[in-house]
Amino acid sequence: MVRKTPNNGITEQRPSFFKVIIPGHTTKHLRIPTPFLELIRNDISDNANLNLNTSSEQSWKVKVSKTRGGVYFKDGWQEFLKDNPADDGDFVVFEYEGNMHFRVQIFDNSCCEKDSFPKNETHKKSTFAERKKRRPGTPRKSRMGCSKLPRPLNSSKDNSDNIAGESAESFKSNYPHFTKAIKQTYCVYSFPTSFYKEHLSAGNYKVVLLKIAEGENWHKVKLVRSLGTAFMSKGWSEFARTYQIKVGNVCVFEVVEENKMVVNVFRT
Description:
- With 268 residues, the chain is an alpha+beta fold.
- The chain has two domains: 2-133, DNA-binding pseudobarrel domain (At1g16640 B3 domain), CATH 2.40.330.10; 155-266, At1g16640 B3 domain (Beta Barrel).
- The chain is 18% helix and 33% strand.
- The protein has six helices and 16 strands.
- The protein has a seven-stranded mixed sheet with strand order 3-8-9-5-6-7-4. Strands 10-15-16-12-13-14-11 form a seven-stranded mixed sheet, with helices on both faces.
- The longest helix has 15 residues, at 155-169.
- It starts with a strand and ends with a strand.
- Residues 122-164 are annotated as: Disordered.
- Keywords: DNA-binding, Nucleus, Transcription, Transcription regulation.
């Protein structure tokens, strides 16, 4: 991820990585990926500071533990999880800001970024402990307005999905393009790694501009870069709502110039 400093306009590289919250695996401590450590090897110290992307007012100090098995966020990591609504399966992105400071983004199981957090004093218990009290089969309450539509299990739906997929496969373009099947409504979607590296990574863009095929308006969508590719974040859900992109649709994304992409939607 590239940022431009306000004083001299010089760009700087800000590496990032992501982890999925898995009870017993990333809840007790969190292992920092080895390739990422190579990027910050001159900065590694005994402590790290975590700040939420949605607020710069509060930070969490986390002990950095070095072992033969790797480098981990340890003491203080569980407190961070308790103070913030991170649930099983959530997707957490860590963007490095230098001097062992990380900007943290949390995406929920509908793939939407969590941008509304409870105050710490009202969130004393870990969400993992709360989940144990739920009866099996009880749905989790969403903290956001992001929606995920259930997919009906019937043959007519499957057939319509096949039609959308076949239409997308027959799509021809002189521009570089890739195809995405919409599995969840308003979900955060990533670019195929090879496609991103070949057609989009040179500029290390913070945003991508999307336009519906035959449309006139361009829409800004924030990009979160991680592990060799990028994820469409803030702005994608609004784009999907505006053009009624739904589960079962298939989208073909064409790179028409620099960070501009035309979205062709094949509907069921």
